[in-house]
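Students often ask why we bother encoding 3D structure as a string. The short answer is that it lets us treat folding as translation between two languages. Here is a chain of 460 residues written in the first language.
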Amino acid sequence: MNTSKAQIKQPNIILINCDDLGYGDLGCYGSTENETPVIDKLAEEGMRFTDFYMASPACSPSRGAMMTGCYPPRIGFGSFEGHWVLFPGQPVGLNPEEITIAKLLQQSGYATKLVGKWHCGDQKDFLPTKHGFDSYYGLPYSNDMGRQNEDDDYPPLPLLRDDEVIQQQPDQRSLTERYVEESVRFVRKNANQPFFLYLAHMHVHLPIYVPEHFLKESKNGRYGAAVACIDWATGVLLHELKQLGLEEDTLIIFTSDNGSRCQGEGGSNGKLRGTKGSTWEGGLRVPCIMRWPNKIPAGTTCTGITTAMDFYPTLAEIGGAEIPKDKVIDGVNILQVMNSGGTTESHRDTFFYYLTNNLEAIRYKNWKLHLRKNRREIKELYDLEADPGETQNIYEQHPLVVKELLIKMDSCREDIGDDSRNIKGKNIRPSGRVENPETLTHFDSDHPYIIAMYDLKDRG
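And here it is in the second language, the structure alphabet:
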């Protein structure tokens, strides 16, 4: 146990993770289409990160990385039997041998709860209650992995409480409100002890179902209504913290699991190139806001390279937990960066861009080198400080920079592998696997399922 636990009061921690919310989807990140007054105020009262990355441009790998502090290939989460993400009934998931940040905080005396999307495996050995969460309420995977129309092959979408299915095909229009109610109950119940709440929204993943009043007020269609719903939910939690006198004792982190799909659906990655599912900046660079009164200076900005993997060692220190010494962790502690208002440089100057188990690019300081895109070899170098939109390829002009970055990529391949080069990493761990997997639900033609709004066939 870290000795700082006895000396410093453990703060509450609320991690809000959105689904497919893009870099340009919030007012405080430049959006003029979406109304986000609560989240914008959160940024004014805390710190906004400009160069914050998820470890993958797809949801299962990015979430597994955030929970463990590791690049997805290190924990067997680069791909899943040929899929980019986990699907219902797959035999693989987050290995129970992995020690998640929830488990570390639980062992350090925190009450822990996950509300919303998990997507790290739907078999009982992989569910949140096996990974450090005292309780769970939500959808175990994406909200499009249910029966959206009569000829779907998917089993009915399950709503879980802990490891029990309590409803099939829940009405998604009311699901965010139910998530907020569950979160508020947890906060009230644990107001007198440190707690870790992980609220993982289904918005703005397709299909988008929102309450009618958000839709009526939106100037950006269903997408804008879903963003407004997230903003409303954030406001409810902030109000509850204030009512309970917990504002100053609570660190709030707001982020997204990967970039927006965009493609005319209402989302935006701002000035960044690319979308979810790509290793252009728009696929992995996402909004991140932190507020912690009297610890994080208000109205500050961090421009250094930071990642969701960094939550692991940072929250461990904040919560008085000790990181396992027998596992390699890729996250770096950014507490000093937070406390300094971004004036202290991050210990991270390098970030590797993986798509499945393929190493496609590297960022070192302001330089980004692409070597692979859409299954083909490329040679592209960008100065992200001068050209964040990755529009001017300057590969030929900087041979020494390219040489330095190639050496770093070779070291990464040796460490955690690169399937595109047939290299197996020396420091990788397997995902979990079960025999005879089953889906959590099974379609019954006589069951009166709700097919939501109820004919959207969008999938994300």
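Translate back mentally: Confidence is low (pLDDT under 50) at residues 1-7. Keep this in mind for the problem set.
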